[in-house]
Amino acid sequence: MPEPHELRIPVRYSETDQMGVVHHGSYVIWLEEGRTALMASLGFPYDEVEKRGFAMAVRNLDLRYREPAKYGDTVLVRTTVERFRSASILYHYEVLRELDQRRLAEGAAEVACLNLRRGWAPAQLPTDIRTALENYLNGPT
Q1: Cα–Cα distance between 114 and 112 in angstroms, integer?
Q2: Where are the domains of the chain?
Q3: HSE of 138 in the Cβ direction (CA atoms, 13 Å)?
Q4: Which pLDDT tens digit goes with each residue over 113-137?
Q5: Which of 34, 102, 130, 139 has a C-alpha 20 to 30 A away from that of 42?
Q6: Diameter of the chain by CA atoms?
Q7: Are 104 and 67 in contact (CB under 8 A)?
Q8: Active site residue 17
């Protein structure tokens, strides 16, 4: 598997309950942040992809919680592309507590490419994105 993209996120008070434990829904947002940061690092920020007439919609999300994150923690969201097909990308995630590297959650999300100019119709990934993903998966040469 290629080197994961790492994104540091300080846990905000608004993401926690009264006991200072992160609400489960916050993890889904963190995964999206990780996914969009990885794609931006490959040269494809989501806003630019959308300007070209494409969207990446979540088709499937799998998330397993292992330990709670708490207010005051900083988490590391490690994101990798596991595979891609003609019209979809499968991402894998690990959420770790930065301080002790304990795994807090892990999961996967499959996103489908959609053509915004054709009424959100399924679309093949643009060639340049497929090429960047191939290069990412094959690692440095």
Answers
A1: 6
A2: 5-138
A3: 7
A4: 999 999 999 999 999 999 999 999 9
A5: 102
A6: 50
A7: yes
A8: yes
CB under 8 Å, gap of 24 or more: what pairs does 127-133 form?
Answer: 128/44, 129/42, 129/44, 129/49, 130/84, 132/42, 132/43, 132/44, 133/42, 133/81, 133/84, 133/89
Could you tell me which CATH class the domain 5-138 is placed in?
alpha beta
CA-wise closest residue to 76 among 3, 10, 1, 2: 10
What's the pLDDT tens digit per position in 8-51? 999 999 999 999 999 999 999 999 999 999 999 999 999 999 99
- 17, 62, 73, 100: the catalytic one is 17
Q: What is the pLDDT of residues 63-78, one digit of tens each?
A: 999 999 999 999 999 9
- pTM of the predicted model over 0.85: yes
Other CB atoms within a 10 A radius of the CB of residue 101 amount to 8
Is residue 58 pLDDT above 90, yes or no?
yes
